[in-house]
Amino acid sequence: MDYIHFEKPIAELEIQIEELRRMAVTQAINLDSEIGELEAKASNLRDQMFANLTPYETTQLSRHPRRPNSLEIIDTICSNFIELHGDRNYFDDSAIIGGIGTIEKQSVVIIGHQKGRGTKDNIARNFGMPKPEGYRKALRLMSLAERCKLPIITLIDTPGAYPGVGAEERGQSEAIGKNIMVMSRLKVPIISIVIGEGGSGGALALGVGNKVHMMQYATYSVISPEGCASILMKDASKAPDAANSLNLTAQAALNFRVIDSIIEEPIGAAHRAPEESAQSIRKVILSDLAELSGLSGEKLRDHRIDKFLAQGITEELNPHEEASLAQQKTPQT
After folding, report:
1. Is residue 33 domain-shared with residue 125, that is, in the same domain?
2. Number of structural domains found in the chain
3. Is the pTM of this model over 0.90?
């Protein structure tokens, strides 16, 4: 198991537990009492730690090297998945994967950002940062879904779209903008789930859904905390402060009605129980499909457009309401 910085106290206890188990086997010693005591201590520490996570600690969890990625989730929730490749224009961007599969006898098109496992695979998948061809591949699969009248599932997990010169030359912003435009008009159900990092326009290009959900320890933000700190605070080391201001957690996104629900993860986050986490995602998808399947194509499209146009709208108070609110905020003497 890989550990990130703030998990080190737990890591030390778990290493001790494993050492005692090894001794119990190799030396035929009964150490159940000692092991049980350390397990209880580790469990209590984990409960306390995860009950008080900071936004930046949540960001670190969303990037955990063992966090379940799109292909691993698809393998768990989907049968008969057939991956489809290429944008039919330039090349196949492996930072985005997609294809056709079955969830509980329902055929669906699934598209997701894909990070790698280990350095070599991450380089091959560009660390989950798609180029324009990745978004054009996704668009091709979405068009296929509409022609075949299949629901679309998108799994979002990217630091952001790749900002390289070649990507910009081949129309990165156009590709993202076109995906957002076309997704808003499709006449099939779209369910979007942020499973890890939801970074900027790179995430939005797969995020225009009738239903949008986030895993409990995922993040969704216009920029990374490090990028925000570098640009606005001129100091990347202030990333934790930037994370506090970005409202990037699932709870913040739910409060601002950016998402529809939070998918709970096991204590210790999804990487500790990937099968359980994937089944939670599967349950939400099936519930959404049951709710959306009764809507016509026009209603699905209008629902999606109305949903996103309503974000960020606030109601204006009349003068009487403003005066009343101001009086409530005035300290009483």
Report:
1. no
2. 2
3. no
